[in-house]
Amino acid sequence: METDLSALYQLLGSRDRPVLPSGEQRAVLGCGYVGQTLARQWRAQGHAVTGTTRRASRLESLSQWVDEAILFDSESSKNDLSFINTVDCLVVALAPTGQQYVDLDTYRSVFSRGIDQICSAIAARQSSSPLTVIQLSSCGLYGDHGGALTCEQSRIDLLHPINALLAGSESKLQELRSDHVSVTTLRLGGIYGPGREIPDWLLAAAGQQVERCGHHVPCWIHRDDVVEAVDLIAALNLSGLYNVVDDLQLSKQTITDHLCAAIGLPQVEWMGSEREQRVLHAAVSNQSIKRLGFQLQYPSMIDWYLASRSAAV
Questions:
Q1: Residue 168 CB contacts under 8 Å (≥ 6 apart), including other chains
Q2: 312 — alpha (psi -120 to 50), left (phi > 0) or beta?
Q3: Is pLDDT at 101 greater than 70 in this prediction?
Q4: Which domains are delineated in the chain?
Q5: Beta carbons within 8 Å of 251's beta carbon, 6+ residues apart
Q6: Are 190 and 34 in contact (CB under 8 A)?
Q7: pLDDT greater than 90 at residue 14
Q8: Between 55 and 22, where is the model more confident?
């Protein structure tokens, strides 16, 4: 769905976006880097929030930010998802782990076995009250488009097994759409923000040769912009598919050139060699969600990073 609502919001004087309803029952499945931030914001807005984690050791800390903290482990057959019966909005923000390398079976655990359990719980829901389901997916699905402009209708790369799992999870959730259930998929860029300064990782290679391709065009999004995008979809109660990325459409070589020049470091030398890996090489468009009235707080990862460095001095 690509309805342009921005003119209506301007007419209503609502700063190009609707006012969120308060006091709803909301749940975040997967309170990691993005999910916990979202849960905290929603609770501060007056919503009753249920949040899940797969680690028992995190339950106590998560309880500070949600009304009810629950264990959800994709590998377990004993998960209690009964709370889905009573929520107004459910965000599926599951991710494998925060580790640099995640094997295929871990992806399969989350995006096949885990999603199957969630879909079963939604399908078995007794309530006929409206439910908004929002899935956080990945723009990595688009694969190699040669750096060309890519939108939600562009082909996706199903040859890579991780992409096939992600696409399968999107389809399973979208199939749950009904008169009472709306489902929106948000495909995200690489997430950066406080505590996840991706430019620092890139700058760690300054003056070195990197055995990777620098001409590929990735996409990025600030954590807080993801939260705002979810807020918007929750308010609009839409079904659809939207890319959530910032405005930066530069190759990795160009990004590191800009960063190194700004900070006074020697450039990264990308060697251009390929390995068997999942590749994203596309200028991913964010125009569809902008037509809903969405406005980026952080249009450029480079600008955000350099401003953060200046503020810290």
A1: 111, 112, 115
A2: alpha
A3: no
A4: 6-192+221-245+279-297 (3.40.50.720)
A5: 147, 214, 215, 216, 217
A6: no
A7: no
A8: 55
